[in-house]
Amino acid sequence: MADDSIRQAFIEDKPPEGAKRFRRCRSTPSDPTDKKSSDTTDKKPSENVSALQAKELFKEIRPSFTLVGLLLFVYLLVGVIIFYLFMGQISGKRTNRVLDALYFVIVTMTSVGYGDLVPNSNTTKLFACAFVFTGMAIIALFISKAADYLVEKQEVLFFKALHMNMKGGEAKLLRSMETNRIKYKFYTVALLLVMIIVSGTLFLWKVEKLSLVDSFYCVCATITTLGYGDKSFSSELGRVFAIFWIITSTILMAQFFLYLAELYTERRQKMLTKWVLNRRVTTMDLEAADLDGDRQVGAAEFVLYKLKELGKINQEEISSFLEEFDKLDVDQSGTLSTYDLTLAQTTGGV
């Protein structure tokens, strides 16, 4: 059985005197509702360096809306200019030359491909090939990430609306939202997708004068990028609406299936976690958990073994962490101190 003092060190901020200390790493994200950790990090400005570095890292990962907007603007502008100049080499039903060029770029970018406007020369066909690959790359790398960020913002409002009367204050609300993040993202996108389907169906029914069944059929063929082409936006007002509606609906559809897959994966992970936590520990487990080979398993070794079972960490990562610890532990005492860090930095150990 693991020593109680070591177990306490894992679950308390301040372990008992004489017990081995397991400090929370200040560079890792902490519970935003944990006042103790926030109070301690506010004491010294130097201790906030790691937190600032983490913020900069996530700032780089988060898509820049300026960059996304600029890339989309340049893509559409170049596309409109090219296909405006070569509109004579594109066959199909025309409305307005500039509008048709923009509409054709959007239909190409989203790979909907109705077929109501079709390149009929080698030049326009090559341009269409280039724009479909470039457009799909922009959607995959930038616009979908921006959409995911916007969904997260809407998710907060959606969650608060569902839990207006939740007791426990903001802290409990944040914990519950974090626990069910994927589920509420899925619900948010599903709600937005239903709204976009309804709006598209009603528009095609009222403006394009299609029947309700044909309107819904055209909407489904569009958002799934199937694009049969027998039904499409043929009027000038319809194509103005389609420019904004097509790109929004196709991205929402992609995000819907993405979150559905993530939700399924999360549920399988929870089932695995439940199985790992409830199964009996055997002697073979103890042998596998014994990292230092002393025929005894401490609390730290047991926790690491359980994390490995859950797939949260692997042996290669554990070995690299231990190597880093050995490099920092200059005096070979088995513990780290500020003296060790200072000495390791001056001797080039870090």
UniProtKB/TrEMBL annotation:
Q: Which PROSITE patterns match?
A: EF_HAND_1
Tell me one GO molecular function of this protein: inward rectifier potassium channel activity
UniProt entry tagged with the keyword Nuclease: no
One GO term under biological process is: intracellular potassium ion homeostasis
Write out the annotated subcellular location.
Vacuole membrane
Q: Which domain of life is it from?
A: Eukaryota
Entry-linked InterPro entries: 2pore_dom_K_chnl (IPR003280), EF-hand-dom_pair (IPR011992), EF_Hand_1_Ca_BS (IPR018247), K_chnl_dom (IPR013099)
Q: Name one GO cellular component term.
A: plasma membrane
Family per similarity comment: Belongs to the two pore domain potassium channel (TC 1.A.1.7) family.
Q: Which residues form the Potassium channel domain?
A: 71-151, 192-265
Membrane topology annotation: Multi-pass membrane protein
Q: Tell me the segments the record calls region Disordered.
A: 1-47
The Basic and acidic residues compositionally biased stretches are: 1-20, 32-46
Q: Which residues cross the membrane?
A: 65-86, 98-117, 123-143, 184-205, 240-261
The record lists the organism as: Digitaria exilis
Keywords in alphabetical order:
Calcium, Ion channel, Ion transport, Membrane, Metal-binding, Potassium, Potassium channel, Potassium transport, Repeat, Transmembrane, Transmembrane helix, Transport, Vacuole
What broad class describes the main subcellular location of this protein? membrane
Q: Name one Pfam family in it.
A: Ion_trans_2
Name of the molecule in the record: Potassium channel domain-containing protein
